[in-house]
Design brief:
The chain is mainly alpha-helical and 485 residues long. It is built from 18 helices and no strands. It is globular.
């Protein structure tokens, strides 16, 4: 039943506490941005040397088709890591639901996952530099497995202590904090000391390990700091006790078709809603992850531009995302989460249509050390549209999933959400790698993303109902920066 006309309640979103919870997501996106920006290019280069006896830069100059031929192998490696995550995310979510410790049910997983990932992460570029494929892939797997131990409980922490009607706005704050982490990682790639294209384009004897090692070390250190900030400021058990009345009221105001009852099977209406959301999510993550995984190679090997341009691209997309996350909750209150997500998908689709017209500029940059072309301005526009559109999507989709469960199953339903996204990220690198090999053209990337985004919008818009949560009051002004209680 619709909650559109529900009266104002006394529920208030504590912005300060929500931002502190966001430090968990800060660490996640910080590491993820470095991982996604560097690892596919590492794999491309190391397989080029293994199979053809040349670096990827040498192949780019003499036989560019060979670069496309190894992308399916790159996709398999990236997908194998995601397959492990697909299996582990629901497990860690369910385990953390049932865990009881003096520091909470999520925090033990967050701390262990953080520290193991942080230790293993800098070994990825080290093994790559010394051309050790097995060592590099093993470190990638360890990082991803322990990040899954960290990620599900860290994300579940927000809905654990946030009433349901407030979760869209809270998720916006969480994601903004995460994008600060991603932006920090991106900025590192702009500086010459850490410019991946300089490293890749240099002869083997002249490659400097620290060019690729420093971003990984800095990401590890900041990830540990963010986890310690979270641990010191968020007391899970105390907050759960303090907020139990607010959480109970939030259950009554949930945007669901039928009430949630743990003692009964999930209703058919709620189950259909869940499956529709997860199905559409699978499709939009297939599109988004394809772009995230291959954009570095697209810029270096197709546009023949510098990797630092990709970093600027990511920053612009990130700024657009921050704007989207900041206003998505307010938009959802007016038109509902369904139409907020649908609008975001269509904005993203518009950007991807424009990407289909992006071509190498063939204009050599002034003072370019390796004859790189200037970066096409149109791609900046694409990334701004995609960043804003997908922010609307991500901001509202996770709250819609955990809206369909009680507080006892948040970790489990968070696992469902990430199982859909990680299964997409398992399939899409391999599938797109095969598409690129068959098409022998990098222009297949935006076409592939366009098709999947349009399909996800069609599934979501046609199958998901628009049910608004009850209206709530929110903390504003100086009160938002006050105490947690």
């Amino acid at each position: 039943m619709s909650k559109t006309n529900a009266p104002e309640t006394g529920l208030k979103l504590n912005v300060r506490r929500t931002a502190l919870i966001g430090f968990a997501f800060f660490g996640i996106l910080l590491l993820w941005q470095v991982y996604d920006s560097w690892c596919p290019t590492f794999l491309t280069d190391i397989f080029a040397k293994t199979f053809y006896g040349y670096t990827s830069a040498e192949l780019k100059a003499s036989a560019p088709d060979k670069i496309l031929e190894v992308q399916w192998i790159v996709g398999i490696i990236m997908a194998c890591d995601n397959l492990a995550a697909l299996l582990l995310l629901p497990i860690f979510g369910s385990l953390s639901d049932r865990t009881k410790t003096p520091i909470g049910k999520r925090m033990p997983y967050i701390l262990v996952g953080t520290f193991v990932s942080a230790v293993a992460f800098p070994f990825i570029p080290l093994f790559f530099h010394y051309n050790n494929i097995a060592g590099m892939v093993a470190m990638m797997a360890i990082v991803l497995i322990f990040m899954m131990m960290y990620r599900n409980p860290a994300v579940a922490l927000m809905p654990d202590i946030t009433p349901k009607p407030l979760r869209a706005k809270a998720n916006g704050i969480i994601n903004i904090m995460g994008y600060f982490g991603g932006a920090f990682a991106t900025v590192m790639g702009i500086f010459k000391l850490m410019k991946l294209s300089d490293y890749i384009n240099a002869p083997l004897a002249e490659r400097n390990l620290w060019t690729i090692e420093l971003p990984f070390i800095i990401a590890s250190v900041l990830m540990v700091i963010s986890a310690l900030v979270l641990f010191k400021t968020i007391r899970e058990n105390e907050l759960a006790e303090q907020l139990k009345d607010e959480l109970a009221l939030g259950e009554q105001l949930a945007a669901v078709e039928t009430p949630i009852d743990d003692d009964k099977p999930m209703s058919k209406a709620n189950r259909n809603m869940l499956l529709a959301i997860l199905g559409a999510e699978f499709l939009w993550f297939m599109s988004d992850n394809a772009l995230g995984t291959y954009i570095g190679n697209y810029v270096i090997y197709y546009l023949k531009s510098v990797s630092s341009a990709t970093m600027i691209l990511t920053i612009l997309g990130g700024l657009a995302s921050v704007l989207g996350f900041a206003i998505a909750g307010g938009i959802a209150e007016k038109i509902g989460r369904k139409w907020t997500i649908s609008s975001g998908l269509m904005i993203t689709f518009t950007g991807l249509i424009l990407m289909c017209f992006v071509r190498p500029t063939n204009l050599v940059m002034a003072n370019a050390e390796h004859g790189e072309f200037s970066f096409p301005v149109l791609l900046y526009v694409v990334w701004i549209l995609k960043g804003f559109g997908m922010a609307l999507v991500h901001n509202c989709s996770f709250p819609m999933v955990v809206e369909l469960c009680s507080s006892k199953k948040i970790g489990k339903f968070t696992g469902y959400y990430y199982a859909a996204s990680m299964s997409a990220q398992t399939v899409t690198p391999v599938l797109l790698g095969l598409v690129l090999k068959a098409a022998m053209a990098w222009r297949a990337l935006p076409v592939y993303a366009c098709i999947l985004t349009l399909l996800s919008c069609t599934v979501f818009t046609s199958l998901v109902k628009n049910i608004k949560a009850g209206k709530v009051a929110n903390v504003t002004g100086l009160e938002a920066l006050g105490a947690d209680d």
